[in-house]
Amino acid sequence: MDCIFCKIIQKEIKSEIIFEDDLTLCFKDLKPVSPVHLLIVPKIHITSLFEVDKNNSHYISKIFENIPKISMDICENGFRVVNNNGEDALQSVEHLHFHILGGRQLGWPPC
Ligand code: AMP
Ligand code: ZN
Question: Is the pTM of this model over 0.85?
Answer without folding.
Answer: yes
